[in-house]
Amino acid sequence: MFSGIIENMATVVAVKRDKENIDLTLECPFAGELSIDQSVAHNGVCLTVVALEGNTYTVTAMKETLDRSNLGLLKEGDKVNVERSMMLNGRLDGHIVQGHVDQTATCIDKRDADGSTYYTFEYRLDREMARKGYFTVDKGSVTVNGVSLTVCEPTDNTFTVAIIPYTHDHTNFCNIEVGTIVNIEFDILGKYIARLQAVSKD
């Protein structure tokens, strides 16, 4: 479980393909504090640490993860948003994030507004999945590349988020341009509500 509050940006230092899986080795300031089997979110995807060496660590992304996320697009030098799992004795500053990316979205607009930056993302519309809670609502929560954000101006398959300068500079939002593919995770609470409504109709 995560909160969507990014701790650092890790740098990809190696990408190794093994059949349908990918091993990613990343350099990160808190690598020395990690342990084997620990969970870390990468652009919002929960992955398990499988190797440690100095200030780097390695995780494995399997085919299912690669099909649903942007991790398969990563190359050496890319910056990745990382967050260690949430501690239960702390404040929930973002929202409840599972680390299970639902799908990708594409940035279709980026504009400045009084110091902040507005990004609009478009995702593939699936009516059946929408009935199960895979959608965004105005002032609701969404996770973009692991960052907990508030939705504005949602449509059936687009939404906009406002990024303050600190978030822009301390996450890989600083590298997002029109055409960039990002990971999104819809709000788990919305999925539960949609499921309860479906069950109540049966």
Features:
202 residues; alpha+beta; Elongation Factor Tu (Ef-tu), domain 3; 2 domains; six-stranded antiparallel barrel; six-stranded antiparallel β-sheet; 4 helices; 12 strands; 41% strand
Report on this model:
This protein has 202 residues and is of the alpha+beta class. The chain has two domains: 8-84, Beta Barrel (Elongation Factor Tu (Ef-tu), domain 3), CATH 2.40.30.20; 103-200, Elongation Factor Tu (Ef-tu), domain 3 (Beta Barrel), CATH 2.40.30.20. The chain is built from four helices and twelve strands, in the order E-E-E-E-E-H-E-E-E-H-E-E-E-H-E-H. The strands form two sheets. A six-stranded antiparallel β-barrel has the order 1-2-5-4-3-6. Strand 3 and strand 4 form a beta hairpin. The longest helix is centred in the last third of the chain and has 14 residues, at 188-201.
Helix content estimate: 10-25%
Class of secondary structure makeup: alpha+beta
Strand numbers in spatial order across the main sheet:
1-2-5-4-3-6
Number of domains: 2
CATH architectural grouping of the largest domain: Beta Barrel
- Average of pLDDT: 92
CATH class of the largest domain: Mainly Beta
Q: How many helices in DSSP terms?
A: 4
What general outline do the C-alpha atoms trace?
Answer: globular
> Tally of extended strands?
12
Strand composition percent: 35-45%
How big is the Rg?
17 Å
Report the order of strands and helices.
EEEEEHEEEHEEEHEH
The separation of the N and C termini measures: 31 Å
Classify the fold: give the CATH topology of the largest domain. Elongation Factor Tu (Ef-tu), domain 3
- Note poorly predicted spans: none
Largest sheet: 6 strands, antiparallel, barrel
